[in-house]
Amino acid sequence: MEIFKQIAPLKAFIEGIKRPNKTIGLVPTMGALHSGHLSLIQASKSHNSLTVATIYINPTQFNNPTDLEKYPKSMEQDLEMLRNAGCDVVFSPNDFEMYGNSSLIKFDFGSMDKVMEGKFRPGHFSGVAVVVSKLFNIIQPDCAYFGQKDWQQYAIIRQLVDELKFDLRLYSVPIMREADGLAMSSRNLRLNQTQRANASVYFQALTRAKEALNKGEDLLRVKRSIKEMVDRTPEMRLEYLELADSKNLNILEGIDEGVVAILCIAGYAGEVRLIDNMFLVGE
């Protein structure tokens, strides 16, 4: 497994192995890897000749400095996991390599980045779009892989690829869950024992909301029920539960025929913020 910290040698390496019949898969990560990340590696390996993983905690997508400071880091363990998973290349730059002395570019995705995560984390998706654009330009992948857990992010990156005409194919890989349903996340490492035990309430909430809506129950009544369910669980606090069009992220007031709807949830376990989602049909 080749490891690069600088852009120039990485680009030279990729250029040296490019062939017409070889494809490159990209798996962007912020480290603190778990089985969910490894499922992205496996998806890339099944489609491509070469898999490149990136490990970079991107500062421009954090609107909370404390969250950035406390984001878990486990570089040596991450590299070992990637090596064992058969990853071919790792790119792990520092902030100066990615941004120089400053970053001035901003993205605006209209209503797509003003709802749900965008509403509570202003500027987050601009930061995501900037760093993802940089990685696409540096690595020039044929395919890129993202986890379904961050569905709003995936939908926005899909818009980015479409509008800027990046020549690549995007894949959303299904959520990997713990035995109790909790979506795997690097942030789970910050949960104490009690918080970890109770955090599965978010998966339970999605499951209950999905069942209720598919039975024809009123969305507002379902939202009130879910808020009570989460907030009465020790150390858990609901931030939002929304039903959205999975394509354009428009917030729905109920089930619309012909729309592929997704339930998105966010909340806290202590001071740790968790997100999850579930399609109204499937899963």
Q: Can you characterise this structure?
A:
The protein has helices spanning 7-17, 35-47, 65-70, 75-85, 95-99, 117-120, 124-139, 151-164, 193-198, 201-214, 219-231, and strands spanning 2-4, 24-29, 50-55, 89-91, 143-147, 169-173, 236-245, 261-269, 272-279. Strand 2 (24-29), helix 2 and strand 3 form a beta-alpha-beta unit. It is 40% helix and 19% strand. It has eleven helices and nine strands. The protein has a six-stranded parallel beta sheet, with helices on both faces. Strands 7-8-9 form a three-stranded antiparallel beta sheet.
Overall spatial form? globular
Measured between the Cα atoms of the first and last residue, the distance is 34 Å
- Which class of the largest domain in CATH terms? Alpha Beta
What radius of gyration results from the CA coordinates? 19 Å
What string gives the helices and strands in order? EHEHEHHEHHHEHEHHHEEE
